[in-house]
Design goal:
- The chain has 245 residues and is α/β, with parallel strands linked by helices.
- It contains seven helices and six strands; from the N terminus they run E-H-H-E-H-E-H-E-H-H-E-E-H.
- It has a six-stranded parallel sheet with strand order 3-4-2-1-5-6, with helices on both faces.
- The structure holds 3-methylbut-3-enyl trihydrogen diphosphate (2 copies) and magnesium ion.
């Protein structure tokens, strides 16, 4: 492992990853897209383990977007089946490794067996105190902000809040990553996207306001702990100014 190049004093607290390129990975190998998603799950598992080893406190992965429903039924149901397999087969290990799993997004519209597996995982890991592993599922940044606006509108309607109370903090609290929610996490210092695409695709639009973006050309199933460390090293080389001079 190349982790000697990392500055342990400057590790990001929260890393978010857009796991992209499963389809292209499969195509390159002449395999069905689902084989790519399966390989992607394996890559994800290694990154979860490695985040814990690096002392990262929060890892958020973009697993399924609100726009991914546009894909074929076979691909969508296949992705959720793989997810069920992953959480069921890894639950024991996640518990042993003290990982706390959270979901960002409204997962209630997923297939019933996926909802069941996720709920079991959330419940069995809820008291763990190690890495918080957020899985963004049926997640969209705009959907998340829309829900926050609706919740705030409802509070104002009930008279529990004044329009003047709508601060950035108040909006942040209503997001899936907000203090009022189960997935509470600080804003990610670093967002990594694989597969060479350079866009956010509706990921963490609010929370990513000042995140450093690192793009890797590697397709997600080929993304290794070494690549991950390279991305973190790139983050550590950046000069974060937050609008200051
Ligand atoms: C990312 O890989 C996984 C999901 C979006 C679920 P893709 O399936 O988007 O792979 P490409 O972009 O088609 O290669
Ligand atoms: C973003 O990837 C969503 C996930 C990785 C889950 P997409 O492959 O859906 O994004 P676009 O369509 O290339 O923007
Ligand atoms: Mg893609």
């Amino acid at each position: 492992m190349t982790d000697l190049i990392l500055d342990r004093e400057r590790m990001p607290l929260h890393v978010a990853v857009i796991m992209d390129g499963n389809g292209r990975w499969a195509k390159k190998k002449g395999l069905p897209r689902l084989a790519g998603h399966n390989a992607g799950m394996k890559a994800m598992k290694k990154i979860v383990d490695h985040s814990d080893k690096l002392g990262i406190k929060y890892l958020t992965v973009y697993a399924f977007s609100t726009e991914n429903w546009k894909r074929s039924l076979a691909e969508v149901t296949g992705i959720f089946k793989l997810l069920v397999t992953y959480v069921n087969s890894d639950l024991k290990e996640l518990v042993e490794n003290n990982v706390r799993v959270k979901v960002l997004g409204d997962y209630s519209s997923l297939p019933a067996d996926a909802v069941r597996s996720l709920e079991r995982t959330l419940k069995e890991t809820e008291n763990n105190t190690g890495l918080q592993f957020n899985i963004a599922l049926n997640y969209g940044g705009r959907d998340e902000i829309r829900r926050a606006v609706e919740a705030i509108g409802e509070k104002i309607r009930r008279g529990d809040m004044e329009p003047g109370d709508v601060t950035e903090e108040a909006i942040g609290e209503e997001l899936f990553t907000g203090r009022l929610h189960d997935g509470f996490s600080p804003d990610p210092e670093l967002i990594i996207r694989t597969s060479g695409e350079m866009r956010l695709s509706n990921f963490l639009l609010w929370q990513g306001a000042y995140s450093e973006l690192v793009f890797s050309d590697v397709l997600w199933p080929d993304f290794t702990p070494e690549e991950y460390e390279r991305a973190i090293a790139e983050y550590q080389s950046r000069d974060r100014r937050f609008g200051g001079r």
